[in-house]
Amino acid sequence: MVCVHPSTVPTPTPAPADASADERRPLTRRDGRVDLWIAALVFGLGLATLWLSAVIVSDSDGASAPSTVESILWLAALCVPIALRRHRPVAVLVVVSAVFLAAQLRGYPDTLTPSIVEFVAIFTANAWASRRGRALVVSVAVTAVMFVWLGVWLRTVYVSDADSPDAVTLATIAYTLVSNGIVLVTAIAFGRAARVSASRLHALERTGVELRAAHELVADRAINEERTRLARELHDVVAHHVAVIGIQAGAARRTLDRPEIARGALTAVEGTARTTIDELERLLSVLRSRDGETGPGPSGLAALPDLMTDTRALGLDVRFSVDGDPRDGPESIGVTLYRITQEALTNTLKHGNASLAEVSLRYGDRTIEVEVVDDGRPGPTPYPGAGGPHVAATSGAGLGQRGMRERVDLHGGELHLGPRRRGGYRVRAVLPIGACVDARPREPAVTPDPSERA
How far is it, in rounded angstroms, from Cα 116 to Cα 77? Predict the structure, then answer.
């Protein structure tokens, strides 16, 4: 298990602070086409109701009704603004209301279609206006004007100056006022409710887009981290085993006149090559895995004795000791300590010209640490900068020690490496056992590092 601090996980970008709380989706061409069709349908309905109303009015009192052509023009003036209702909602409401009152004053015979158009205009103004406060004020003003006109019309039709109204007349007036009031107030309420619903839906859609973007970012980071991990594994495998193969091949070349020694060196080359192939096959199985099973994990703390044995077979005397009570820890910590030990011993073989290496594994109360020291001296191929204990420190940039730092930093541990005053080189890594619980990303502690050895 690899620990990742929560702060490294990206979160969706919050909406700007000045974004409107009732922001809704922008208009589309489809919305314009829908409004055009609504205007056409209402106009068709208006023609049908106008014909029916004209028949009724002509049977009772046809003198007060406008001509057919004028009525159609009034109907068109009512319906055409509906095609722009969502582009200019407040303006459409004002225009439709003005045409509605003017048509009724001229004696337009139909009241059904104009009432529907007025309802749609009030609803749209409260649902789509950019400033809902202004839309509410205009809607209330229009409603008040409509009630004043309705009251005047009712008084003209049902109330005579000579006679006081009877109960039937009063009931008719009350019924008309209440029914029209319900229609107008309902249009305002439904429009504002639709606005809130549309705003919430738009916010959910935007949040969904942000979450999908964040998910893609997390996936990309996970892929990059996995690539980095596999790159470290490949470096550790190739650097260690190829270095061993090179050393043994050189020994075989120098001892061709002594077949027994040369045969042993070539046998070691063969075994190391097979081990390298096995390691590479394991890494490839991780890449090819589809069901989440990655096969046997990389070597951990339990494999350290085998690593010591393999290194001794190359001619380097290795002493291995364990201090403290061994305990189980996260597998990733064991892998990290194993790879650091492997890298340190590889560097000793390649650059240290050493005869002895001491590997110490220590278990603390909350930490596990490994320390590798050698007695190397500058030789035919000394590690760069190992001219003495007082050489100026520089920051190394080799892949070997960079990989060590990355591994240790991933677990919130400490890494100390550099030459010893009495000669030789020292690598010490300390990892917290509870790293996955309370570790926090921090800069790894690194002692002056004169050079990289791999």
Answer: 14
